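Late entry, written up from scratch paper. The run itself happened at the end of the previous shift, but nothing got recorded in the book at the time, so transcribing now.
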Amino acid sequence: MYVRPATSEDRAALPALHTAAVEAFGPDSYDADEVRAWAKADDRSPDDYNVAAPNEHFTVAVRDGEVAGFGHLVLDLGKIHAVYVHPDHAGHGVGSALLAELEGYARGRGCSTLVLQSSLNAVGFYEQAGYERVCEGESPGGLAVVEMRKEL
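Output as recorded:
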């Protein structure tokens, strides 16, 4: 496995990966209606993933020749916007590698703190990586989340 910056060619794989991750792991913490709304199975498009946006950083993990996960950092906000791993690649360090790369990128650009909104099913993952709970809240889509923070 290796992690690299996402390219425009990677965008085609991201909608299905994103939806598959939500559908596989979301039911651990959310009901069927919440998972369905979050997964947006028919509403995601490669255009939703602007891998070349200024002051943002998109990265992908490649495992066994395919995009296994992606991460997205909004540098101006010091915010990790997303870390998703396809269920076929879960448990192989993909999420940890993506998160470490996003943190390293942020640190290299002078960011000293990162924040994120964790889905309830991912709180333990982020806590193991050193993130601390700040408060509970809701995502823009109305999903219960935990605001988290890490000093780099």
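The chain is about 25% helix and 35% strand.
(Scratch paper discarded after transcription.)
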